[in-house]
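sorry for the late reply, my laptop died twice this morning and i had to redo everyting from scratch. anyway the thing you sent over, i finally got around to it. pasting the sequence first so we're on the same page, its 433 residues, then the predicted structure underneath. double check i copied it right bc i was rushing
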Amino acid sequence: MKNRNIFFKSTLILIIGGIITKILGFIIRIIYTRIVGEEVIGLYSLVMPTYSLLITIASLALPTTISKLVAENKHNNLKIVSTGTILIMTINFFVVLFMLFSAKFIAGTLLHEERCYILIVAMSFTFPIISISSIIKGYYYGKQNMIPNVVSNIIEQLIRGLLIYMFVPVIMAKSSVLAAASLFLFSFIEELVSIFINLLFLPKHIKIYKNSLKPDKETLKNILDISIPTVSSRIIGNIGYFFEPIILQHMLLYTGFSNSYILREYGAYNAYTITILTVPSFFITAISSSLVPEVSKYYLRRDYGVLKKRLKEALKFAFLIGIPYSVLLILFGKNILDFIYNTKMGLNYILILAPIFPLFYIENILMSFMQGINKAKTTMKITILGVIVKNFVLIGAAFFHTGMYALVISEIVNIFLVVFLNIYYVHKFFKEL
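ok and here's the structure:
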């Protein structure tokens, strides 16, 4: 009963924090979108797949890895954090170097938009600070102490809102490109504050010795054993996301659509459609973050009854949130878009995707469960297959002059395939016990 209370308490804290963060994030996004307009949002959307891919490589899935190792209590926690920090800083050095040298090629050749160059350079400097912040957050997740992360996330959003409100109008008056790039500078400041806040929550009795901060070979091996399959899965997913605007832009230009149409519609798809559809994602992230250390702990104890129970509880929770929200979007999507963003752009995509998205909400939970039972390699294979199929569907659908609907169709196929395969392997795991 005590362990169940810890799981629900952790999840509840993350959900409450997520609600506050999401509301603040929504207000900030509305303010930012109305200040900068659709063209700047389009530019920002074009570089986000590149950002997602590189930050995945730079952070090496260490929040999940450290959360799992701390929960299993196999090593000294300081050894885990210090070894992870040294590893991540080494990786970040090479990632930033790569970004600085390849920024012009990515912007001009791959994205066909030279204005993205400044955004790509700006984003590269955020990677090291975000990676360090993610290690500290992973430590608290492993301890199932969610308060530090919730507090830091709320303060991050407040700082972000203040910075946008004070500086973006001034920057926008000088340059729309710099207005887009400024978000990455703000991210750097937010993460710096987040690290400081999280450090304040460290237990007072912790004694840090010089020996405990030295990297440890066994700890490094355990970190890499967990993080490489996990990050490989995410990298594959983000490679697909990275190529998404590139494939889409090339195919739509080939089939006769203008560059302005692509920038406008892709910006609307990401800024309005996906943002509205993924509102419940903070619930799902909260459940998934609590699930990984919980599953890792009971899997180590071979308590498979509790594992099945936790998974069922998590899935029920996701459906109880996802299904009513999807119905709400189908019935009132137009009103929601109009109220929040004062636009109807992206509504058609919402109406098509809303009935499918309850499945998308459980995808994260299933993958978190698989990582908790040491099946990260299986999730990697599923992700690879999903990315390959999605890109082929995207190319095929775009070829038939479907415009931005090609992206919608490929998204639906990907959701069905990935969720079905995860369900199959989870069922197989319990069947073989």
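DSSP finds 15 helices and no strands in the chain.
thats about all i looked at so far, will dig more tmrw
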